[in-house]
């Protein structure tokens, strides 16, 4: 989970913008787990990226915690 996933999940960032941001994030990632996460997202289709990001939206996280 990262800030970018949350931005996409809340529709504050477009998928096309996220893909652009990913290139930068991959080059500047400091932790190996962050790099792995960004690389995984970069391989996804636009639809896949959006679905993946939605898992991290605060709405869904809250729902998971309540159930
Ligand atoms: Zn993320």
Main sheet record: none
Order of helices and strands: HHHHH
Q: Tell me the number of structural domains.
A: 1
Helix amount:
over 70%
The chain-level mean pLDDT equals: 89
Report on this model:
The protein is an all-alpha fold and 67 residues long. The longest helix is centred in the N-terminal third of the chain and has 14 residues. The two termini are 20 Å apart. The mean pLDDT is 89. The chain has one domain. Helix 1 crosses helix 4 and helix 2 runs antiparallel to helix 3. 76% of the residues lie in helices and 0% in strands. The protein is built from five helices and no strands. Zinc ion binds next to helix 1.
Give me some keywords for this one.
67 residues, mainly alpha, binds zinc ion
List the helices and strands and how they pair.
Layout: H1 3-9, H2 15-28, H3 32-43, H4 46-54, H5 58-66
The protein binds zinc ion (ZN).
Short description:
This protein is 76% helix and 0% strand.
């Amino acid at each position: 989970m990262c800030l970018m996933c949350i931005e996409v999940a809340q529709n504050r960032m477009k998928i096309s913008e996220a893909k652009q941001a990913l290139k930068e994030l991959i080059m500047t990632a400091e932790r190996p787990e962050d790099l792995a996460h960004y690389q995984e997202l970069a391989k996804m289709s636009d639809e896949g990226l959006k679905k993946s990001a939605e898992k991290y939206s605060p709405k869904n996280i809250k729902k998971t915690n309540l159930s």
